[in-house]
TrEMBL record:
The keyword Ion transport does not apply. The complex is composed of six subunits: RnfA, RnfB, RnfC, RnfD, RnfE and RnfG. It is an enzyme of class 7 (translocase). Its cofactor is [4Fe-4S] cluster. The keyword 4Fe-4S applies. It comes from the Bacteria. Residues 1-22 are annotated as: Disordered. It comes from Natranaerobius thermophilus (strain ATCC BAA-1301 / DSM 18059 / JW/NM-WN-LF). Binds 2 [4Fe-4S] clusters per subunit. This is Ion-translocating oxidoreductase complex subunit C.
């Protein structure tokens, strides 16, 4: 089955110049800034104090809330500060600062062990995933142990591994599938066991034939696993769009994939599950695509969490004189940063540097009712109306038109000939709607 897709969406261009660049390791950072908020849910509380010595992989933050994920040290050394530090998602967050001793002494089994999944129960897999602090590494950062613990009345029949990676410039998932396919398949099988499911799908866009080949080579003798290829279109990697394209199921408004019998995990998440089961290694590093016309040396790099983007950029030759914007993530859903002094966190899939040529400022004009935003919306919303409601400060009307269903993919803003900041309007609407509900 090939070239499946979903209604709506856009084709903003791929710019995957790093797709053939193997994953490289950079120098061990001399100092890391590790936020206690790296996941959806309750933030962690530090379990260490200034002056403590920590090992690589040691737990340094946790919460007693179910929807949360512990945080671990990414290097060994001394805790030199616990401060409020700039967070790449905005505002500040309580942050543990560790100065490296240069030894990188691990607090986990440093050598991979041969592991038989039959030796783990479903509950044991969930517990290992929780203790490893694994979250959705595609950017959403939802705690994985929560995602693979659906209630009994919502049985799961399909686990999807999301290898679409539709965001322009980003190629970290692509390289993981090419270089670490066996681990991803092992992680998929572990997730399937955790949710008591006997069907797994690896979903890949058709612009990644080498990834398709690598995955297919490992599933040909297993009837429970399947590689599906999809039309290259944005946002093919969004959960609801992937489920629609792969299974022709529609997640209901306000619902979750589990409502239609699915669990969706990123390729990096599946690999992290494999590492946790084989070595007890927690999330302490991830692959980051560093790209864009504003960087001297682009590529895919294994980066320790808490490493400042400014340190990464310096190691790669620095940024060009014409660099005007730094984005954590991709150009469609990434978050623009005021400077490069932000730490890499669990949800950092990329660091993108753009120049004057790409960063253009347009004057917003009135809506011309062309309907292009409506045609492109993958959720079948009416972005034009939602924007108009918020221009007139009517979040109540935006709520009536399902503003909370917006996945903030940016298709409407990208396609709008009047250059209306529609995603911004809808984000404001969603914030005001949620604030009203909380007050009630």
């Amino acid at each position: 089955m090939a070239n499946q897709t979903f209604p709506g969406g856009i084709s903003p261009g791929h710019f995957k110049d790093t797709k053939d660049k193997p994953i490289e390791s950079l120098e061990l950072p001399k100092k890391v800034y590790i936020p206690m908020e790296q996941h959806i849910g309750a933030p962690c509380t530090p379990t260490v104090e200034v002056g403590d010595y920590v090992k690589t992989g040691q737990k340094i933050g946790e919460s007693d809330k179910f929807v949360s994920a512990p945080v671990h040290a990414s290097i060994s050394g001394e805790v030199v500060d616990i401060v409020q530090y700039n967070h790449p998602l905005g505002n500040t967050s309580q942050t543990v600062v560790i100065e490296s001793d240069g030894q990188d002494e691990p607090d986990y089994q440093d050598e991979e062990q041969t592991v038989n999944l039959d030796s783990f129960s479903a509950e044991e897999i969930k517990n290992v995933v929780k203790e490893a602090g694994i979250v959705g590494l595609g950017g959403a950062t939802f705690p994985t142990h929560v995602k693979i613990s659906p209630p009994e009345d919502k049985p799961i029949d399909t686990v999807l591994i999301n290898g679409a990676e539709c965001e322009p410039f980003l190629t970290s998932d692509h390289r993981l599938m090419v270089e670490q396919a066996e681990k991803i398949i092992f992680g998929l099988r572990a997730i399937m066991k955790a949710v008591n499911c006997d069907r797994g799908i690896i979903a890949i866009e058709d612009n990644k034939p080498d990834a398709v080949e690598a995955m297919n080579s490992l599933v040909t003798d297993d009837d429970s696993l399947e590689v599906m290829t999809f039309e290259t279109k944005y946002p093919q990697g969004a959960e609801k769009q992937l489920i629609k394209a792969a299974l022709d199921r529609e997640v209901p408004s306000g619902g979750l994939p589990m409502d239609v019998g699915c669990v969706v995990n990123n390729t990096g998440t599946a690999l992290a599950v494999a590492d946790a089961l084989r070595t007890n290694k927690p999330i302490l590093e991830r692959v980051v695509t560093i790209s864009g016309p504003g960087i001297e040396q682009s590529g895919n790099f294994m980066v320790r969490l808490g490493t400042l983007a400014s340190d990464l950029i310096e190691q790669l030759g620095g940024m060009g004189d014409q660099t005007r914007k730094i984005i954590m993530g991709g150009p469609m859903m990434g978050i623009s940063q005021p400077n490069a002094d932000f730490p890499v966190i669990k949800g950092t899939s990329g660091v993108l540097l753009l120049t004057d040529q790409e960063v253009q400022i347009f004057e917003e004009r009135p809506c011309i009712n062309c309907g292009r935003c409506v045609d492109s919306c993958p959720i079948s919303l009416l972005p034009n109306l939602l924007g108009t409601f918020m221009e007139h400060e009517r979040p109540d009307k935006a709520e009536d038109f399902n503003a909370l269903d917006c996945i903030e993919c940016g298709c409407c803003t990208y396609i709008c000939p009047a250059r209306r900041p529609l995603v911004h309007y809808i984000r404001v609407a969603k914030g005001e709607i949620m604030a009203k509900r909380q007050n009630k």
